[in-house]
Design goal:
Blueprint: H1 3-16, H2 24-56, H3 59-68, H4 74-84, H5 90-102, H6 107-119, H7 122-157, H8 166-174, H9 189-224, H10 229-234, H11 241-249, H12 256-268, H13 273-285, H14 288-294, H15 300-324
Helix pairs in contact: 1-2, 2-7, 2-9, 4-6, 4-7, 5-6, 5-14, 6-7, 7-12, 7-15, 9-12, 11-13, 12-13, 13-15
Length: 325
Amino acid sequence: MFDWLENISDWLVYGVFGLEEASKLGLSLSFFIYDTIKILILLFVIVIIMGIVNEYFPIEKLRNYLARKKMYGLEYFSAAIFGSITPFCSCSSVPLFIGFVQGGIPLGVTLAFLITSPLVNTVAVALFISMFGMKATIIYAVSGILLGTIGGWFLGKLKLETLLTPWVQEIIEKRTTIQDEFEEENLTFVQRLPSIFRGAWEIVRGVLLYIIIGIGIGAAMYGYVPEDFFEKYLGGGEWWTVPLAVGAAVPMYANAAAIVPIVGVFVAKGVPLGTAIAFMMGTIGLSIPAGTLLKKVMTWKLIAIYFGVVTVFIILSGYVFNILL
């Protein structure tokens, strides 16, 4: 699909710039040019598609729908699905968590959204398609949604509302019946397109720097790191490599735009895809900044339970990925 782009990248690096094909700098620069252009093209297209979805089904509408409907367990899946199509990182999902709780959404359903939103989002899907293909992307997205659904359901069954901070509990006690805040606009699809394109550009512009940094780091690793470096520590397939990858990821917070290109290099260097994905999920889903923000709405005990459950699920997902991919 992108063979033409690879040819252009090689022509620029080895033809125009005159670098040797076997040189480390040549490999790194070719990787950087090719991946940057390819990822930006796919990202913009997918963000536009998701923008259309969000334009017709915004967050306020979902919140009110989940608060009013009894869905016999499907509310967890619905929250996870919506979390997967919203372009929020773990930090920006926290304000939405507060809005969900304030709006009367059960805690477990809210946590299903909070788990899924950073793990599976527009940026991650676009990057995954470009780097690992459709099969790996589908398995990644489906498993992330299931992780959020089952994790939210499990945490909901634990009845953890008493572990929310007094500030949130006060909000819940004072809560009144939700009024429908979303006023449907009778706009045609063509009339909505300008705002959809503006929204897509804002998202791409917001992650552009992270993409460039991530691809730059990945390109340097691709060209300069020895072939067997990552394979030596994470590529052997031992049972402990997945937990090790997740544990190493937590203090290395980055959003999907920055981390997926680096994960691509891990795979190219011999790390199993499941282990690499577990590392990525740990990086964007178990971040220290998100934990700091959650302190506003959760006690330390609830944060520990939440992070513990998500960690176990990510590790299990890593094992499943290594079996399926």
